[in-house]
Amino acid sequence: SNPSQERRYGSTLATAFRLSELPNDASRLLQLLAFLNPDRIREDIFIRSGSQLAGQSSAASWEPRKFEKARYDLTQSSMIKRSILKREICIHRVIQSEVRAHMDEADRYAAFSEVVNLLCARWPPGDHCSQVTERWAICEDLLPHLERLYHLYLEHPEWVQYEVEQALPTLMNEVAVYLHERGFSHEGKSYLQLALELCERAKFSHEPLLSDMHLTMGALANETNDARTCLEHNVICLALRKAEAAKTGVPDLRLAFAHSQMGIAYMMVKKFALATDYFLQSVDLLGSINADVDDFGFPMCNLGPAYWIQGKLDNADKTLTDLLEQREKAFGKLDSVFYKTGRVLQALGNVRSSKAMRLSEQNDHEGAEKLWDQSFEIHTNCLKQYESTLGRFAHRTADACHKLAEHHIRRKEHTQAQ
Q1: Which tens digits make up the pLDDT trace of 236-268?
Q2: What is the pLDDT of residues 279-305, one digit of tens each?
Q3: C-alpha distances in Å from residue 322, one per residue of 103, 188, 264, 315, 380
Q4: Which of 229, 220, 183, 211 is nearest to 394 (CA)?
Q5: Would you say domain 292-418 falls under CATH 1.10.10.10?
Q6: Is 393 exposed, middle or buried, given 0-12, 13-18 or 19+ CB atoms closer than 10 A?
Q7: Domain of life here (predicted)?
Q8: What is the value of pTM for the model shown?
């Protein structure tokens, strides 16, 4: 510290904490902590790589002994607090700000990039094909840190002078995928927009990263009723994945799923016959690569409503009934692992309702009542399945509640409907 400065102004935060006197490893750890959300920083961000994202190195991870010594030094100097039980660290925002202020621009960006790589190594990668809920607990813990990185990057426009590492757009895409899975698709758009801008600036053409990002933006646009954006990005995604498949001459899961998403895009612009063709192509591609039962979930579940909306109720019923039987055989009745089963039940319940309405119009009231009862039971199971996989407050759960309310209103059970 500067003695004359101390005489004139007294101790600053930096001199009071003696930042310059910290051992090298403690100083480096403190700099990294300054770029994370200050609360509940998991220690395993630093000392293990977890489910590594494609292309990410674990070189940024710390040796356990070095990390423990650096953590001890910071704890002893009151820079951080530690929960031994939870193995988490917290740091005051004022200390974070002071640490960043005492770094030059190049060092700030280097520390930021190191944190990006650490989180890339720890984040369990998402997958539009499966969207399993098992990874959500760790994603929920890490999300505040990814949000922090996003805002810090936007707050430092001068960082555009530095080379973009693939890890940053990869991580921003992962945030968008996770937010989409949890029902916050609108919030995911800004992260993905940054990811696409970074790739454009760096002239990245890496696959599957680029097509994955366009696929994600298409999915977000679908959930937020933005038909034009949905179609635009799914067209790009499918073109990229066709080009990749042409290099090997062998179709893969990504190509099959791109066809399914293309079908969704055409559903949004009301080109239902074209959408149906894309869903069928997706199913055929999955069959050609001997895909897992779960991989058929989205394209077949989308095919059912495509038939339904065109009035082909028997085709829709058979498609969805067959899919439900396949899933129950593989995962058990009303599995609590995949919300895809809930989607099948919701669609099938809708089909049975439409069949009931058709019979009622034909004055076959007994047949209609049987189908109404089936629809009610299916939608009841749909709600149970959504609650066990997505929780009580997801928008799909709300959709299932709305369907059940319609049933109760039809039965004149107004109290239950409320």
Answers
A1: 999 999 999 999 899 999 999 999 999 999 999
A2: 999 999 999 999 999 999 999 999 999
A3: 61, 34, 21, 11, 19
A4: 183
A5: no
A6: exposed
A7: Eukaryota
A8: 0.86
